[in-house]
Design goal:
Number of helices: 9
Number of strands: 3
Shape: elongated
Largest sheet: 3 strands, mixed
Distance between the termini: 33 Å
Helix content: 55-70%
Order of helices and strands: EEHHEHHHHHHH
Strand content: 5-15%
Strand order of the largest sheet: 2-1-3
């Protein structure tokens, strides 16, 4: 069975000289403000690009002058460059890069930051909905509103099935799936069969069972 090479370190050079060597720990610890699972997912994506330059010893040797061609459409490359640059910025090594090389890094950084901002906005909406839905679901028992009225309120501003399906696997399993399981269970009491059917579609997209 094929396994991805374990990259132990990244050796970065520019203008034909070695600039700095970063261990994996240096790179992943360079993002302390980001959830550890998210960082590990990004690292695995970055390795899809980095392993092209890795030797049998697990050392990845990259000449940035050859790689910074301005193409930010390669997703794995974009994440790899961003994580490397972020780690260098955290430990003060960015000043070791030649000015021209540092300038060529910027499109990758800007592209990744823009993507992160979009993702943050998306997850903020999903998480906000989940908190609201959970509050409404817990209020069904003993509340004054009918079950159908509660579900009408829940579904008045629910994100699309595709939005939840596209979320990262740990988020789907740990944060979203339990709430949709509760939603599907309580929807069985609705007079309108639409809500149970719709809840089942979300549950299925998240990998749950109906």
């Amino acid at each position: 069975m094929w396994r991805r090479m374990e990259i132990r370190a990244v050796e970065i050079s520019a203008e034909d000289r070695v600039t700095i060597t970063l261990r994996k720990a240096d790179i992943v610890q360079g993002m302390p403000q980001v959830d550890a699972d998210f960082v590990e997912r990004d690292w695995q994506t970055a390795c899809e690009y980095l392993e092209r330059f890795a030797a049998a010893d697990g050392i990845c040797r990259i000449n940035l002058d050859n790689e910074l061609d301005g193409n930010t459409l390669d997703y794995a490359k974009n994440i790899a460059v961003f994580m490397i640059v972020n780690a260098m910025a955290q430990n003060g090594a960015m000043q070791m890069l030649p000015m021209e090389t540092a300038m060529h890094v910027m499109p990758y950084v800007q592209s990744r930051i823009a993507a992160l901002q979009i993702n943050m906005a998306k997850y903020s909406r999903l998480n906000s909905f989940m908190l609201r839905a959970l509050h409404l679901l817990k209020g069904i028992d003993g509340g004054d509103e009918s079950v159908d009225d509660v579900f009408a309120e829940i579904f008045s501003d629910i994100p699309s099935v595709q939005s939840f399906a596209a979320a990262a696997t740990p988020d789907r399993a740990e944060q979203y799936l339990p709430v949709f399981e509760m939603m599907h269970e309580k929807a069985q009491a609705c007079a309108d069969p639409y809500y149970a059917k719709a809840a089942a579609e979300y549950l299925e997209a998240l990998g749950g069972e109906t």
